[in-house]
Amino acid sequence: MKPTDISSPDHFHKVVDCQWACPAHTPVPEYIRMIAAGRYADAYMVNWHSNVFPGILGRTCDRPCEPACRRGRVEEEPVAICRLKRVAADNKGDVSGRMPPIPSERNGKRIACIGAGPSSLTVARDLAPLGYEVHVYDAQAKAGGFIRQQIPRFRLPEEVIDEECGYILDRGGVVTHFNRRIDSLKELLEEGYDAVFVGSGAPRGRELDVPGRREAAANIHLGIDWLASVSFGHVKSVGRRVIVLGGGNTAMDCCRSARRLGGEDVKVVVRSGFEEMKASPWEKEDAMQEGIPILNFLVPKRVLHDDGRLTGMVFEKVAAQYDEKGRRNLLPTGEPEVVIECDDVLVAIGQENAFPWIERDAGVEFDRWGMPKLDPKTLQSTNPKVFFGGDAAFGPKNIIWAVAHGHEAAVSIDLLCRGAAVADRPPPDTRLASQKMGIHEWAYDNAVSPDLRYKVPHIPPEKALRDITVEVELGFDREMAYLEAERCLNCDVQTVFSAKLCIECDACVDICPTDCITFTDNGEEDDLRTRLKAPAVNLYQDLYVQDGLKTGRVMVKDEDVCLHCGMCAERCPTGAWDMQKFLLETAKPKAHACHSR
């Protein structure tokens, strides 16, 4: 194998599994160490620089970082990364003075953002400090998009939304046009904007097409519309018996909201198996802890009604069967139909994009599914002045993906307005800094804590179910946050090897607790992986290979099982090993000042 090029940002970035998995590439270990040190405001600003909405995401993120967490490879549960983010937000104090300044003089460029959801707000956050005049349009009276409309207040208090949207909208540089729906892209382009960003989400719920649906329409509601009506106070009650159709997070929000609005007998019905549901595992767990059963492998067949008054639904029992190519089909079992009585049905079986306001001669081309044709890296459409992000770009995902799209689109818009090639992406900012403070002293805590994951406290269910505005999760207090933060394995503190200093004494090999270091003859990767002290079986994780040893051998380290404990560097008599903190910050139109380091 060729020696690993550690000057390339990707190798060590991929070793920091949590950051690599985060769409916005938040430097997770960096802010967790700050939380452990009680530097909550610093931790918040590291998050804000990257993911823009730490308080919101600390409560609602889908947590792609946690399944990737290295702690989950040595214990059952990963570090509670998401909930630690909330700790930083809850304890930060006043950080308004640490936000990047908005210049009083504009640069003469005007940008329009359609929709005031997370992707549009990220674009505005990134561009306003550069002197852009950003105009944000939304049909609602307040910013937030689906964050405000569809996430219930018992999961996300409104004051948190107001605060974090305010950091973007209330500091200057952003002009808001609330209560204004955009009905024509062509008309907006004619207003002379230098670029338009479409962050209008996926606003249309997928319909239920079964017999009886139209006749009983008064008590059958699309989930996302119903949640919005609940959030804005238009819906304050629901029937005693409620069926929620769907297996995603929207369905979980619907069923838990229904319990708080008077639903005594609330059931979730999904056509797939429980394990195949799209809802996050913790969302399913929270629903079931509130007494909501999840019934699976049931397909809606028809709606029962009495002269238009909803009385129930009929379902067909199905089972999963797989063909010779491993493709799954849901086939009827032949068992008797299942009848479930109900007073209301909430349909949460998916969301769709809707662009009736984009004229088909506006230069934006669409595919056969009605989605815009985009460059996946630049998010530029076939109209070079129009960019998309969030759910409007590739369909429904989650907040952190919308933020990531907003950052990339802001880079593209900045390049476009400066006359540069939009495809010429700037590199990330990376740094490697030694953590050595002495022979046996390090600037980070390298003790490997054996503690299991700490559980986030909740208010009692009997209290939670009485008020739809009472936040269910209480969050970690500072002491529990410290203990949970100590579970982090500091994956960003890398073992950096210098072959010219190595005397091949094998001291590092002997002391390594996971047998991840091997000195051996070089070879092809497939062969080399089998000849290590402990075979490297995770092909997704790259090997760290360095040559230049006096014997002609190579040093090979399996990055997959390394605990970053620093024992190799402590034991090395020549300093060939060093522990160096790797910090990567993804490219923004301009580096925002975190003022934290």
From TrEMBL:
PROSITE patterns named in the record: 4FE4S_FER_1, 4FE4S_FER_2
InterPro entries, sorted: 4Fe4S_Fe-S-bd (IPR017896), 4Fe4S_Fe_S_CS (IPR017900), DPD_II (IPR028261), FAD/NAD-bd_sf (IPR036188), FAD/NAD-binding_dom (IPR023753), Helical_ferredxn (IPR009051)
Domain of life of the native organism: Bacteria
Short name of one Pfam family: Pyr_redox_2
Keyword annotations of the record: Iron, Iron-sulfur, Metal-binding
Keyword match Metal-binding: yes
Occurrences of domain 4Fe-4S ferredoxin-type (ranges): 493-522, 552-582
Name the record gives this protein: FAD-dependent oxidoreductase
Species of provenance: Roseomonas nitratireducens
